[in-house]
Specification:
Blueprint lengths: L8 H8 L2 E3 L8 E2 L9 E4 L3 H9 L4 E4 L1 H6 L6 E3 L3 H9 L11 E2 L4 E2 L4 E2 L4 E2 L4 E3 L3 E2 L4 E2 L4 E8 L4 E2 L4 E8 L4 E2 L4 E4 L4 E4 L2 E4 L5 E4 L4 E2 L4 E3 L5 E4 L4 E2 L4 E2 L4 E2 L4 E2 L4 E2 L4 E2 L4 E2 L4 E2 L4 E2 L3 E3 L4 E2 L7 E4 L4 E2 H12 L1 H38 L1
């Protein structure tokens, strides 16, 4: 749970590491963008236009770069930071989070007698929890969630309505999973023969480390053997497929409609843009960025940006794209040159005929 203390300017400045330019006891109740801010709100500004919006709305407190602050004739209540947007995100961690916070087990929730729940756990109506499930203190399980199997849910987690967790799953502290996500479903593994597909046992587990966020309708499959693992602090968007035995390093970002096939590994601090595809049994190193729709079919090592189908160094990809954009122009030039060559051939042919006629005339004389 986020802090429930009064959110003062002094606390915010300490949290974001900024220089305070207002009353330390100034109290803030909400965080809003510059276009929707009012007098009890914290906002951030990146340029003069947003500063004008914030000033007209009489924002309670502004996160702003020192250079921009010095340019202002009328100084607003402010905290000076190098990166206002990042500071705004850090300040959000101080805001109380009471979503689905209703300690206790609802009367119409179906909870197994083997469930062990810590202090302050909230289980809402329609939730089903079956098996030897351990739920850490302060965690919140919203309506319609289903948790079945040998599960451990850490402290201060939030499962939004309709989350499914099954099989053998370990979830760390402060994990947030959005509606409709499925954690621990069987991996897609078959042996084919005799014109049939025989399912292989999927009997491993899923480990989700602390501070992970998983988007709506995302699937994280349990391993065939051993484990599927999501590293600490990773953030996964909606509609993402994490297949069996995949390992994702800490602090990795994966955008929507991406898919990682079985037994592939991603290193630390990687970024996958939308609709990226990673084939099975590949290794992707640390600090690698894959741009939208990239298709990875080979191992990648060394920090960098990669793009295209098949994936390649981003600069090489841009060069190739530039060359491809010239193809229509080159086609027109080739067609024009071909036409000119034909004209020259015809002209040369006529010239040869004329020369032959001249030579024949001389011989007759």
């Amino acid at each position: 749970m986020k802090s429930e203390q009064d959110l003062t300017a002094a606390r915010i400045a300490e949290k974001v590491g900024g220089e305070l330019k207002t009353d330390p006891g100034l109290t803030i109740n909400r965080l809003k963008g510059a276009a929707a801010v009012d007098e009890d709100c914290l906002t951030y500004v990146q340029n003069r236009d947003y500063m004008e919006m914030a000033r007209e709305a009489e924002a309670g407190l502004v996160l702003i770069q020192p250079e921009l602050y010095r340019e202002l004739e009328e100084k607003p209540p402010a905290i000076l930071v190098d990166n206002p947007r990042l500071a705004y995100a850090k300040a959000y961690e101080l805001m109380p989070d009471d979503r689905y916070h209703q300690p206790g087990i609802a009367g119409d929730a179906c909870v197994d007698s083997r469930v062990e729940a810590g202090e302050g756990v909230s289980v809402h109506p329609g939730a089903v929890i079956r098996g030897p499930v351990k739920i850490g203190s302060g965690s919140r399980i919203a309506p319609g969630c289903i948790l079945v199997g040998q599960l451990e849910l850490g402290e201060n987690c939030l499962l939004h309505p309709g989350v499914r967790v099954m099989g053998e799953v370990m979830i760390g502290d402060r994990v947030e999973i959005q509606s409709g996500a499925v954690i621990g479903s069987d991996g897609f593994g078959y042996a084919s023969g005799d014109k049939k597909h025989y399912p292989l046992p999927q009997q491993g587990r899923v480990v989700i480390e602390e501070d992970v966020e998983i988007g709506a309708l995302t699937a994280v499959d349990r391993a065939a053997e051993e484990e599927t693992r999501i590293g600490a602090g990773s953030k996964i968007d909606n509609l993402v497929q994490i297949s069996h035995n995949v390992e994702i390093g800490p602090a990795t970002l994966i955008a929507g409609q991406s898919g990682i096939a079985g037994s592939s590994t991603l290193g630390r601090s990687c970024t996958l843009a939308g609709q990226v595809g990673v084939e099975d049994h590949l290794e992707i190193g640390d600090e690698i960025t894959l741009t939208g729709k990239a298709k990875v079919s080979k191992d990648l090592q060394g920090p960098g940006i990669y793009s295209g189908i098949p994936v390649q160094n981003h600069r090489e990809y841009l060069k190739l794209e530039a060359q491809l954009r010239r193809v229509p122009q080159l086609k027109n030039r080739v067609e024009k040159l071909s036409s000119e060559v034909e004209e020259l051939k015809n002209t040369l042919s006529e010239y040869k005929k004329e020369q032959m006629g001249v030579e024949n005339g001389r011989h007759r004389k």
